[in-house]
C-alpha cells in the first residue's frame, strides 16, 4: 500500500492511494479466490472511484491503459467529495464518471509508477531465469525488440546424455531439443497466464528422470569445484529440482553417501 496523496482542486480534495494485492504464492488458495472478487483478478484491477466514501465505479483504468497480467494485482482508490459531481460528469444514477483533465494527467503518472514496479519484478524474475549460475533449463534471449525462449543445450542433463551418443545421434538429439523450443505454445501460455496464472504448475517428473537430472548436475558442478552446500543452494532455486525438492534432496544425499563410502579406505 502506497501513502495516500491529496490533489487539491477548486471543488475539493481528491484522495488517491495505490494498493498491490499479494501474489498467489504468498497466501492461501481460499484467500486468493476471496480477494479476486466475482469477476476475477484480471477484470478487477484498476481504479476504484468513491464518492463521499461510497464506491460508484470500479475495475477500470478509464482508458489510460489496458487491463493486463502485468497490473492485475494493482488497485487504486480514488475518493472525491459530493461537490465534484459536475467536474467528474457523474450521472444521476451515480454509476458512471469521467476523469477531469488535471486528474487524468496525475493518474497517468500513477499508472506509470505501477507499471514500472511490475516490470522491475518481472525483470528480476527474468534475470533469475537466465542466470547461468542457476542452471536454467531455458534461456531467455532478448534481441531486436523480440523475446525468445530457447532450451539451454548446455544444461548438464542434456550434455551428460549427449556424451553417451554417437555424433550422428547427437545431431538428432539436439535437433529434437531445438524443435521443442521452436514449438513453445506462446499464445496458449499467454492466455492461461492472463486468466488463471495461479493454476499453472510445472509438469510432474518421474523418479528416473529426476535422478538422471540430479546425477548429471551433481557431476558437472562437483567437477567445477563447487561444494555440496553451494550445489544444493543452486539446485533448490530452479525446476525441476525446486518443485520436487524433497525427492531431489534425498537423491543428492544418497549419491553423496555412496561416493563417500567408495572413497573411504577399507
Describe the protein's topology.
Layout: E1 5-9, E2 12-20, H1 29-36, H2 40-44, E3 46-51, E4 54-60, E5 74-80, H3 101-130, E6 138-143, E7 146-151, H4 156-162, H5 167-182, H6 186-196, H7 207-223, H8 228-235, H9 245-263
Parallel strand pairs: 3-5
Antiparallel strand pairs: 1-2, 2-5, 3-4, 6-7
Helix pairs in contact: 4-7, 7-9
Question: Could you provide a short overview of the structure?
Answer:
The protein has 266 residues and is α+β, with helices and mostly antiparallel strands. The protein is 45% helix and 17% strand. The chain is elongated and about 85 Å long.
Structure, described:
- It is a single chain.
- The chain is α+β, with helices and mostly antiparallel strands and 266 residues long.
- It has two domains: 5-127, no CATH class; 135-261, no CATH class.
- Helix content is 45%, strand content 17%.
- It has nine helices and seven strands.
- It has helices spanning 29-36, 40-44, 101-130, 156-162, 167-182, 186-196, 207-223, 228-235, 245-263, and strands at residues 5-9, 12-20, 46-51, 54-60, 74-80, 138-143, 146-151.
- The strands form two sheets. A five-stranded mixed sheet has the order 1-2-5-3-4, with helices on one face.
- Strand 6 and strand 7 (146-151) form a beta hairpin.
- Helix 7 (207-223) crosses helix 9 (245-263).
- The radius of gyration is 26 Å and the shape is elongated.
Amino acid at each position: 500500500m502506497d501513502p495516500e496523496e491529496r490533489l487539491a482542486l477548486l471543488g475539493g480534495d481528491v484522495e488517491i492511494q495505490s494498493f498491490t494485492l499479494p501474489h498467489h504464492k504468498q497466501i492461501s488458495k481460499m484467500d486468493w479466490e476471496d480477494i479476486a472478487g466475482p469477476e476475477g483478478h484480471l477484470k478487477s484491477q484498476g481504479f476504484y472511484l468513491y464518492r463521499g466514501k461510497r464506491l460508484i465505479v470500479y475495475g477500470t483504468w478509464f482508458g489510460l491503459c489496458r487491463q493486463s497480467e502485468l497490473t492485475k494485482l494493482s488497485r487504486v482508490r480514488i475518493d472525491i467529495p459530493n461537490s465534484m459531481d459536475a467536474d467528474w460528469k457523474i450521472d444521476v444514477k451515480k454509476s458512471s464518471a469521467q476523469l477531469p483533465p488535471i486528474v487524468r494527467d496525475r493518474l497517468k503518472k500513477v499508472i506509470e509508477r505501477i507499471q514500472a514496479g511490475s516490470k522491475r519484478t518481472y525483470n528480476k524474475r527474468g534475470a533469475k531465469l537466465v542466470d547461468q549460475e542457476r542452471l536454467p533449463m531455458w534461456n531467455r534471449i532478448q534481441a531486436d525488440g523480440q523475446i525468445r525462449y530457447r532450451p539451454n543445450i548446455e544444461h548438464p542433463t542434456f550434455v551428460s546424455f549427449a556424451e553417451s551418443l554417437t555424433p550422428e545421434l547427437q545431431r538428432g538429439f539436439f535437433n529434437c531439443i531445438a524443435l521443442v523450443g521452436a514449438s513453445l505454445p506462446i499464445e496458449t501460455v499467454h492466455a492461461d497466464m492472463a486468466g488463471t496464472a495461479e493454476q499453472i504448475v510445472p509438469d510432474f517428473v518421474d523418479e528416473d528422470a529426476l535422478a538422471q537430472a540430479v546425477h548429471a548436475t551433481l557431476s558437472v558442478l562437483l567437477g567445477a569445484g563447487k561444494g555440496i552446500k553451494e550445489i544444493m543452494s543452486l539446485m533448490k532455486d530452479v525446476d525441476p529440482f525446486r518443485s520436487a525438492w524433497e525427492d531431489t534432496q534425498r537423491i543428492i544425499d544418497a549419491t553423496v553417501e555412496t561416493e563417500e563410502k567408495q572413497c573411504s579406505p577399507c
